[in-house]
Amino acid sequence: MWLIHQALDILTSHGFRPERSLFALVLLWLLAAIPAHLAWTEGSFAPNSSIILTSVEWAEYDTRHGPPDVENSAQDWSDNTVAGRDWESFNALAYAADVVIPIINFGQTDAWAPSTTRGPAGVFLWWARWLFTLAGWIVTALGAAALTGIIRRE
Questions:
Q1: Can you tell me the distance from the alpha carbon of 142 to that of 16, in angstroms, rounded to the nearest whole number?
Q2: Could you tell me if 103 and 20 are in contact, meaning their C-beta atoms sit under 8 angstroms apart?
C-alpha cells in the first residue's frame, strides 16, 4: 500500500495535480528516446517485416551472411535501396513515443525492431522497451484516473 500511495502522490498528488502524469509521460518518452537513438546509431535495428527480412535486398545487409562495409546496415539499406526508400523511416523520438504511449500507434514498432545480435545497445533496448511500455501504461492509467475523478481529491 505504501508503494501505491507514493506513486499516486508523485504522479497525481492524489488527484490534485493530474498534470504531473503528463510530465512523467514526457520524461519517460525522452528517456526511452536515448537508448533508441543509441541502438540506431550502433546499427542494432532491423526492419520488423517478414517480407523485408526475407527479401534479397535485406539479405545482402544481414550480418549473419556477411554484411556490406557499412556501420549501420539498417540506415544504409533504408536510404540507398529501392525497397528501403519505400519503407518506414526510423525516428528515435517516434519510436520512443510508440513504446511509451500506449494509446497511440506511430508505426515505428511495427516497422523496426532492436536486434539482440548486433550490439549492446540493441540488447539493452530490447529488454528496456518492456519496462518503458509497462511504465507508460501505469502513468497513463493513473493520469486518466486522476482526470476522471476516480482518484478522489478528499
A1: 12
A2: no
Q: 136, 100 in Cβ contact below 8 A?
A: yes
Q: Is 126 left (phi over 0), alpha (psi -120 to 50) or beta?
A: alpha
* Secondary structure of residue 95 in the 3-state scheme: helix
**Counting beta carbons within 10 angstroms of the beta carbon of residue 64, is it exposed (0 to 12), middle (13 to 18) or buried (19 or more)?**
exposed
In the predicted model, is pLDDT for residue 36 greater than 70?
Answer: yes
Give the pLDDT confidence of 74-122 residue by residue, as tens digits: 777 666 665 555 567 788 999 999 999 888 888 888 888 898 888 899 9
Are 6 and 142 spatial neighbours (Cβ–Cβ below 8 Å)? Answer: no
Cell digits of residue 1? 500500500
Q: Rounded to an integer, what distance in angstroms lies between the CA atom of residue 124 and that of residue 104? A: 24
Give the residue from 45, 25, 37, 48 showing the smallest Cα distance to 100.
25
| pTM for this predicted structure | 0.73
Mean pLDDT, the chain, whole residue set: 77
Cβ atoms of 148 and 142 within 8 Å: the answer is no
- The reported pLDDT for the residue numbered 39 is 92
